[in-house]
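dumping this here so i dont lose it
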């Protein structure tokens, strides 16, 4: 399994430059940040759960570290005594209206994700289990990590995008930059196709990293 160190070394080899270690490292980080916002089968999750607290309607990173990492929520479910129910998304303006008019308490049936926080209505009156499903941020791996999707599934996509960045902005070779960008775009399209194919075939896509 590849590591971030392996990836950076191959980019240096692709560019035939051993003197751009810092620049390549920065370009790899920029590439990962750019693709974190894109949805692939490997950055979808249904593994994040937490329990509500009586009288607490707003939940933050202190309640579950992954709450601010979700770019998009597909579903939020609540489990109560073995019964699972899907909560309905609402707008922040609706939640504010409920809150201003003396928010009631009970089993929540709606939520809003806003400013990296989760807001529930009504205010929970018991400890319910909440499960989050959707597009989540997968972090850039450390040097010794071997199972990151960025250095395995998306290896060539990151490789070529980072190489294009360095070629364009550091080496100033636009032909080399364009060649690598085209390869990066092709790798991106291949991963998007695979993601859509997995959705159509019903293969379980949620992965916990």
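and the seq i came up w/
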């Amino acid at each position: 399994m590849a590591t971030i160190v392996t990836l950076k070394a191959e980019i240096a080899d692709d560019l035939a430059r051993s003197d751009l270690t810092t620049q390549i490292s920065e370009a790899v980080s920029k590439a990962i940040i750019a693709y974190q916002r894109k949805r692939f089968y490997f950055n979808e999750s249904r593994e994040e759960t937490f329990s509500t607290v009586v009288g607490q309607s707003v939940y933050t990173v202190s309640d579950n570290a992954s709450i601010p990492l979700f770019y998009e929520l597909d579903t939020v479910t609540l489990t109560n005594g073995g019964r699972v129910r899907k909560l309905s998304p609402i707008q922040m303006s609706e939640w504010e209206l409920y809150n201003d008019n003396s928010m009631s308490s009970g089993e929540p049936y709606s939520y809003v994700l806003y400013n990296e926080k989760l807001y529930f209505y009504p205010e929970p009156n018991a400890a319910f289990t909440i499960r989050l499903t959707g597009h989540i941020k997968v972090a850039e791996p450390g040097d010794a990590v071997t199972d990151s999707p960025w250095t395995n599934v998306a290896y060539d996509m990151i490789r070529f995008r980072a190489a294009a960045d360095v070629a364009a902005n550091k080496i100033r070779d636009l032909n080399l930059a364009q060649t690598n960008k085209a390869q990066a775009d092709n790798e991106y399209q291949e991963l998007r196709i695979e993601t859509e194919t997995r959705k159509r075939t019903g293969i379980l896509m949620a992965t916990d990293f």
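Residues 174-201 form the longest helix (28 residues).
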